[in-house]
Every structure is written in structure tokens, then in C-alpha cells.
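lol forgot to send this yesterday, sorry. C-alpha cells for the thing we talked abt
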């Protein structure tokens, strides 16, 4: 008899865990954000080398360490630091600034100078910012 009670208790515990899992609303970040079109930008690339970043290296204007695939440099007057930026289906974060990055221009961070050179310069690229609804 005692074993049955234990089994029932266990079954009840599992069931309540399953139910609570179902009841918790799924976090849908896509639904809570929207894209705002900022216009057509000119994209260039940079890396932590002396030629691109001087003595700053991987240190960005936001204080964060630059990371390929995430960090972009922007004109703070156009885009606030910390803003999520969508370019060609990829989401970046505005974390850095640059003396030559003015107006509708974005500098995309790469690990190596070679990769930055390969990226080159792209004009008339549609840029969006991701904002909470
Ligand atoms: Zn470089």
C-alpha cells in the first residue's frame, strides 16, 4: 500500500511539472520586437589592428570587447550605442564609434585585417534597427 502511495505521489509530481511547463507562456522575442528602417548605409569593415583601430585594439567605445558577427561601429548621432541593428538578415550591436564613421555609415568589425579587406566597402545597404514594440 505504501508503495502505491509513493508511486501516486511521484506521478502527481511529474504531472505538475509537465503542467507548469505548459502553462508558462513561451517567450517569443520575435513578436515583441519590430524592425525600423533607417535608410541606406555605406558599410565598411575594420579589425583590431593598428591600422584600423590604432591603440584601441578590441576595446570599443561602449567598453565591450569587440566580437566578430556582433560588433559594429556607428555614428552616435545616428544610432545610439547598444542598439540592435539588422543588416542583410544578421543582427549586430552598435558598440563602437570611429573618427571616420559619420552619418549613414557603419563599420563592421572583423577579427582580422584580411577579413576586413575582403568585406571591402558596400554601398546602398538597407539598415534596420530592432526595437521593442
Ligand atoms: Zn585592420
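and heres what i got for the seq, position by position
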Amino acid at each position: 500500500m505504501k508503495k502505491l502511495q509513493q508511486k501516486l505521489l511521484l506521478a502527481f509530481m511529474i504531472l505538475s511539472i509537465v503542467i507548469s511547463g505548459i502553462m508558462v507562456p513561451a517567450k517569443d522575442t520575435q513578436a515583441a520586437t519590430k524592425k525600423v528602417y533607417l535608410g541606406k548605409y555605406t558599410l565598411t569593415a575594420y579589425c583590431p589592428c593598428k591600422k584600423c583601430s590604432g591603440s584601441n585594439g578590441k576595446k570599443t567605445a561602449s567598453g565591450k570587447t569587440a566580437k566578430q558577427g556582433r560588433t559594429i561601429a556607428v555614428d552616435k548621432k545616428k544610432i545610439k550605442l547598444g542598439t540592435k541593428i539588422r543588416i542583410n538578415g544578421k543582427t549586430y550591436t552598435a558598440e563602437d564609434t570611429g573618427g571616420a564613421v559619420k552619418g549613414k555609415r557603419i563599420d563592421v568589425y572583423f577579427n582580422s585585417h584580411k577579413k576586413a579587406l575582403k568585406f571591402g566597402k558596400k554601398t546602398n545597404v538597407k539598415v534596420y534597427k530592432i526595437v521593442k514594440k
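The pocket of zinc ion is lined by residues 46-47, 49, 51-52, 113, 116 (CB under 6 Å). anyway ping me if u want another try
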